[in-house]
Amino acid sequence: MTANVAGYLLQLLAASWLGVEGYSEFASLLAMQLLCAVPALAMQNVVAREVVRGASPRAVRAMMWRCAALVAAVAVVLIPVVAVVLDVGVWAAAAALGAAPALVILSGEQGILQGGNHFRALATVLAMAGTARVAPALLALALGGGAAGALWAGAAGIVGAAIVAGRIARSTTESADPPTDDSGDAGNSREPMTKTVGVLPVLRAVQVQAALMALSSVDLIVVRIVLDEVDASRYSLGTIATKIAFWLPQAVGVVLYPRMAQPTHSARAIRDALSVLSVIGVVAVLGAALAAPLAPLFAGADYAPIQGMLWLFALHGAILAVLQGALLSAIAVERTALAAVTWIGLAIEVTLMLAFARTIESLIGTAVSVAAVTTTIVAAVVLRAARSHPAPADSVLH
What we know:
Elements: H1 2-36, H2 38-52, H3 57-85, H4 90-97, H5 100-115, H6 119-142, H7 146-176, H8 200-226, H9 229-247, H10 250-260, H11 266-291, H12 295-299, H13 310-332, H14 339-356, H15 360-388
Helix pairs in contact: 1-4, 1-6, 1-7, 1-8, 1-9, 2-3, 2-5, 2-8, 3-4, 3-5, 4-7, 5-6, 5-7, 6-7, 8-9, 8-13, 8-14, 9-11, 9-13, 10-11, 10-13, 11-13, 11-15, 13-15, 14-15
């Protein structure tokens, strides 16, 4: 929760300090940074799953560093592409992509804690990481560093957070693990020193997370193409309500994910997760509708035209939160082919927005409609599979 609140504070203050002329660039770069964080999100889920199944921290950390190196290489190639697509400077594009490798390492350490059910330590790391990412960025904005300066400062904070997270994870797991005898038997069914972890499971999970993150962020990229600078900034501010509704119930997936990865508990955990996410989503939409009149007070009078649509932005985020829960369950039981539905939804959304959407109302309406249909299909498939039979731990359907 601390990390999410810090992120929302960053965006609100950035909207106020950069104004409607400059906030669109910052929001689009943040959206691109979120897309580049997809390998990190996949890393946490895969690491948590493999730890549940008996992989040792040493094995998953070796895989983490290999993936971080791959992400760094891809980020370097993408910098000029991002600069051209978003019409920003190369320095700003590099700032958006620069934190990606450190995010992979940070998320991997979080996955070790999550898979080991060390939720107290995980909460500490999440709060610390959110603060480390946002506080330097806010300072840079306050000093007039602009979008690029804020993103570079945030990247430096993430590097520091990854280092601290590694120390916390090592101290927590070392103190929690029971001593082993010469055969490696720790008093349970795990064999932590014999299980190896490859990069391929991460790549499978990446395409699932990529589909979700792209569907939740592509509108922020399209707005810079189809709207003028002022309306693009207004739309970008509205997506703060989307992000709140999307990330507010993040703890639900974090807590239930280890159970989703266990065949004996998977079906019940999936049903519980989707039910709780739906209820929280309804509360988030109602909260956005009630709090809408306060938006201009925090962000400025220039954003008053969107206050009546904030509930719609929140509905978009609430729907995506349910989709995230369904896709997390797919990663947990390695049914990653289900992501194809989300990729199709993404293609339809982009096509409709580029062809027909020319106002804030039509853009958010398109985003909500596509997300609703996509989530309904994915959730129905997941729930049907959960009712019929849970996947065995070693099954792979991809």
